[in-house]
């Protein structure tokens, strides 16, 4: 068993699922909303965990104890972001540092959020395939005339990701290096769950 666990982290593709937010607009943890006989977070973890040659890190923060109690998957690494209130960038930094701790030779990292209910394994795989096909160091998901998550970064951008501050997130780097960015279509990628109205539409 020890060999299997060690071997797992030789994979070159890290996937970070950002799940540290407080869901202030929703009023309850969005990570735990029921969806597809599980939760939004577990659904994202399930889809990410099916990606070959990858390993998954989940970053928790607000409501961490409640989230951990409900988690089904054991094939992940959890890390707690004590600075979650400072914004998403702190979770990006925390997750990427954990990825590099597990595998310093990680070649690419994909960042995903926990509240895009229509994310699938295919979306993650399409990012990886587009990365190999185009040789672009950033591959983002395209929806609603914007580029967003899930998004893949080659290790050449890890230093800049680790310097992110506050609420800015990774979009700052995508915009800065537009010429080194490719994209894939993510149908329904614009649908995320921020309010009770969003959730009602999803389960209706």
From TrEMBL:
Pfam families: NTP_transf_3. Keywords: Transferase. Residues 16-177 form the MobA-like NTP transferase domain. Gene3D superfamilies: Spore Coat Polysaccharide Biosynthesis Protein SpsA, Chain A (3.90.550.10). One of its GO terms (molecular function) is nucleotidyltransferase activity. The keyword Signal does not apply. The keyword Iron-sulfur does not apply. CDD domains: GT_2_like_f. This is Nucleotidyltransferase family protein. It comes from Flavobacterium fluviale. The lineage of its organism: Bacteria, Pseudomonadati, Bacteroidota, Flavobacteriia, Flavobacteriales.
């Amino acid at each position: 068993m020890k060999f299997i666990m060690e071997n797992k982290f030789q994979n070159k593709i890290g996937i970070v699922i950002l799940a540290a937010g407080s869901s202030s607009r929703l009023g309850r943890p969005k990570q735990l909303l029921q969806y597809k006989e599980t939760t939004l977070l577990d659904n994202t973890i399930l889809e990410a965990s099916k990606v070959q040659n990858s390993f998954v890190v989940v970053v928790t923060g607000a409501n961490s104890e409640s989230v951990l109690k409900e988690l089904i998957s054991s094939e992940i690494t959890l890390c707690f972001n004590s600075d979650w209130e400072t914004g998403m960038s702190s979770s990006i930094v925390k997750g990427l540092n954990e990825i590099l701790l597990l595998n310093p030779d990680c070649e690419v990292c994909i960042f995903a959020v926990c509240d895009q209910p229509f994310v699938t394994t295919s979306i993650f795989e399409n990012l990886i395939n587009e990365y190999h096909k185009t040789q672009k160091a950033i591959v983002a998901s395209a929806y609603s005339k914007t580029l967003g998550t899930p998004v893949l970064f080659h290790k050449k951008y890890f230093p800049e990701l680790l310097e992110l501050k506050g609420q800015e997130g990774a979009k700052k780097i995508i915009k800065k290096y537009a010429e080194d960015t490719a994209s894939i279509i993510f149908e329904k990628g614009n649908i995320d769950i921020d309010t009770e109205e969003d959730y009602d539409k999803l389960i209706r």
